[in-house]
């Protein structure tokens, strides 16, 4: 079922196999009809992950990039919507003339073609294919059928992730849900080679024996994946049970050896708790933490690299509109305003930005957070009364944030924002330049609005420096306040969190944590 941790498990298996020297890649299959995740509400599926090539994808792709330390592209997220769109447009253009177009073989062939394409394009020796949803769901049936067919054409092994609940009354681990889902899988023609059991704790010997017997797998292929605080530890926990060796053997890579020593060092750094920096994250989807998963991970990576801990205080921006900001934010070391859309909660974010600017609290704004920083500064420093982004107030007197010129003609909502990685020129001598240590950087974007060029002069004259711009200098990408006037005040039009990994923390996140640490 969803939320069990298939993404983390897939990413972990990837990390384990990669550590043996294999070239690995990963694909996420989402059985919904949306073509991509870009038009979905974060409350339903969590954040939208953005790739270098501008794909708007399921958040599991983020786990893959972070665990594998590898870029993914649009090809790595297959949805039912994409598959049908392709098959139906081929039918219309006459590619199947004379045929009856059907789920088997046309849809299943298209699914297999897309999976194999990833292997071809990346040159991966092993491609992990994560099939979302639940065994037995109508929507995932064509994908399971494609996987079954593929197992006859390629070297395929099946790993099944199931829930092994513990009954609170008796403390007994129940294997029935696993037995039944494996039964469903077998009906679809798939016999799992490995079963990974999610649960509160490790699966006991008795439950393991039962699962092996009833599900027809070797007992060494029944692996536990207990709840953990630090998900980066999962590859280590799986490998302690020799999962890597088992997979290498089953895949026929007998000369390879798993070596997670480097990973172990990184993981331990991510578990350091003291000293601990407390960051307020001001958002409107704070009830569902998955909406800000990459921001949260980026904070952890930055803290880990500085050998400290980080605690996030989740602040609902709408609450800030009603309450006193000083009271809510009285116990924090830094403030982060992440990306977002629309009116709700925006004024609360603006209040938090004003507070951090005036009180000298380390601040990082991202995308919508960058845009609202410009709004705040325009109103409260430049004296531009009623300044706003036209996303919130289309009739504002001072449209300091306005639609990107190329967005004016755009009518379709799917995949039409300014997306993906673009080059950014950093000005020497600025905070941004000192953080990145180079002049040209590439970061990922997802927005429709930008700083209105007509207001750049007045903002800069009043002390808001645009230290990062597009290569043609027309687009504002980073803003900052001089370090003489504020210990750390920086915001980016792009989303730095999408490039942050345990092995490569994002410079602007690292700067935030570092400044907070120094202030303690
Ligand atoms: N809503 C803003 C825009 O479209 C910011 C988007 C974001 O934060 N990702 O430009």
Task: Please characterize this protein's 3D structure.
This protein is of the alpha/beta class. The chain has two domains: 6-156, Rossmann fold (3-Layer(aba) Sandwich), CATH 3.40.50.300; 272-519, Class I glutamine amidotransferase (GATase) domain (Rossmann fold, 3-Layer(aba) Sandwich), CATH 3.40.50. Helices cover 38% and strands 20% of the residues. The protein has a nine-stranded mixed sheet, sandwiched between helices. A three-stranded parallel sheet has the order 4-1-5, sandwiched between helices. The chain is globular. The structure holds glutamine (GLN).
Give a quick summary of the entry.
With 520 residues, this protein is α/β, with parallel strands linked by helices.
List the helices and strands and how they pair.
Elements: H1 6-18, E1 24-30, H2 42-45, E2 49-50, E3 56-57, H3 60-68, E4 77-79, H4 80-92, H5 103-122, E5 126-131, H6 141-153, E6 159-163, H7 176-187, E7 194-199, H8 205-215, E8 222-226, H9 234-240, H10 243-251, H11 261-269, E9 276-283, H12 293-305, E10 309-316, H13 317-322, H14 325-328, E11 334-337, H15 346-359, E12 363-366, H16 368-380, E13 388-389, E14 399-403, E15 418-426, H17 431-436, E16 440-447, E17 449-451, H18 456-461, E18 465-470, E19 476-480, E20 489-492, H19 507-519
Helix pairs in contact: 1-3, 1-9, 4-5, 5-6, 12-19, 15-16
Bound molecules: glutamine.
The site of glutamine has 10 residues, from strand 16.
